[in-house]
Structure formats: C-alpha cells, structure tokens
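SAMPLE LOG
Freezer: B-3
Tube label: C17
Construct: single chain, 377 aa
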Amino acid sequence: MGAIYEIGALCALDEALQGLDLTQLHHYVGVSAGSFIAAGLANRVSPRELCASFIENDSSAGEVFDPSWLMMPAYSEFARRALRVPKHAARALWHGLRRKSFTHALEHLGPLLPTGVFSNDEVDRRLAQLFTRSGRSNDFRQLGTRLTLVATNLDTGEAAPFGRRGWDHIPISKAVQASSALPGLFPPVLIDGQSFVDGALQKTMHASVALDEGVDLMLCLNPLVPFKSSARIPRIADGGLPAVLSQTFRSMIHSRMALGMKHYERAYPRTDIVLFEPDQRDAELYLANTFSYSRRRELAEHAYQQTRAMLASRRSGLGVKLARHGISVRADVLDDTSRRLVVLPRSRARVAGAVTSLHQVLDELGRAIHCDPARAA
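STRUCTURE (predicted):
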C-alpha cells in the first residue's frame, strides 16, 4: 500500500514541481515500503519508471517487480519450526503433566510458531537484479548520492541505518528486505548474525540522519494515515480483526510521526520541511486490495490525482516555501484535468475524476471556514 501510494504521489510531484529532479537529490532516507522507493530514486530510477515496473508490470521499462511475490509462503521458516516439534512438544507435555497446568504447557509451544507467514526473499533477489544493471549499483558506497535505509534490530530494539558508515557494506537489496520485513507477515532478515525487521517499529520517519547534515529542504512522503470513519465506513470494528489491526498500526505510526515532525521543526529551524500524505477521509485507499493488479493501477491513479488536488489547494503557501529553493509549482500542469498516470477504463476514470473534484471542493470549503467562519456560514 505504501509503495503504491508513494509512486502515484511522486509522479504527481515530479510533473508539477519545476526545478526539482527527484532522481538528483542529495540524500534519500527510506523506511519500510519507502526503502524500496528511496533505493530506486537513488539509483536514478524515475517515478514513471517505478510506476511502469511496480504498478503496470511493463517489462519494456526494465525489471518487473510483481507484488504478488510477497504472497509466497515462508516454506523455509515453516520447515525450521517443524524440526523443533519433537523437542518442544515433549517438553510441553512434561511440564503440563508435572504442574497439571495447560497454560504452562502452552508456554513451551511458543517457539514452534513461525515468525512470519510469507517469504520476502524475492525482494532481495529481484532488486539485486534491478540494481546491478548498467548505470546502477547495489552497493551503497558506489552510489552518486547518499542513501539511508532504516531497519530495526530485533534483538536490541535499536535502529539500523543501512548505508551509513559501518552499515554500508550490506547490499542495498538486502537492506530493503530488512527495512520492509513487517513482523508477523515476514520472518526477520538475518544479516551478519543479527535479526532485522521493519524500520517503522523504532521510528516512522528517521529524517534526522539527513537533517543532521544540514539539508535546507526536506520532502517527506507518508503513505499511511489513520482512517476517519465516514458514512461509507461508520465503524472500523465491523471489518473484524484485520481492520482493527490496520487502524491500530496506522494510528501508532502516524502519532509518532506527528511528534517527530514537531521535533524536527524545533530542532532544525533553518530547514524547510514539507509533508505529503493521504487524506484521512479517503476510503478508497483504506479499503484497497493491493494484491489485485487492476486495483493497483486504480490506486496509483487515485494517489496521483489526490496529490495533484492537494498541490492545487496548497499552491500559494507551498509555492512561497519552495521558491526559496528554486522550485516552482506549475499551475499549467495542475490545471490540466486531462493528465493521467495510467490508462483506466472510461467508467473508472470518470469516477476517479469525480472523487478528485469532490475532494478539491471539500478542501476549498474547509479553508474558507477556517479563514472566515462568519462569511462561510
């Protein structure tokens, strides 16, 4: 979900912000799904090329990265746990009979549970193929720019900034695999004898690794926000455990990010910080089935159009901030309603356009109410 939203949003930013080349930035920082995007941009893979590879599965654009690979069962993890069954089952039986306690027996069966359901080994293999092509590199030290991909050391709970000194010998593809290894879904990634999982567990943004170097402009892209219930989805709990877990995870990482952004603004007053993220009322993104090929195209298009609408609504304030860095917001691009990221069936394109227009109207109404409540009433 994060990668799909970020690709759509980046394509909109790439078109609308003149004077900014997203493949020529000074430092890229990626966490979780953002590590895949950051690694691609640092390797001079443009947002449109990422879209062709990840969203449209266009082999003519280069290596195709199919998200369905992430649904492959973690057979090796299942096998490792299965080998432990005799030992732990006997121990559980012994403690259960001796203490006559079912709960004590269950405690000894915990190590039999797999640490992840799906394998993400393909992330490492496929990205290694992509980043070893001519003009690209799978080695942090050979890139023409700075790249930091953050994972979490499972045994210490500390952040692991792959790409920084002491961490830059790890292949970029392996760092992406570790940074995006969400616990419960994917097994921890073993690197140099240590286990690493999703970088979002420790922090959401990890922008300080770039801010400490004195960057003057930081662009942040956050794909996951908590959903605000609406008439379409009045109660999150009606969606069962997956919906509750999704909302919980979104709320946790977003609240930490909000605190982090306030800290960045206080600690780095000379840096202009711009945050792009979805509308919390956006049910399309919240209800998405990201493993459907046709749905991925619709969601990327949706993110593209929503970002365009957001840029249009923030044009004046954002334009002033970006102008200090030689970047301008292209009004002609944002006013061109015929622009599309991918080709959708005509009926779906009309619906997407209507939703975008509705959000623009709501944004304008919200600003009017905020600026002049009496006049808006």
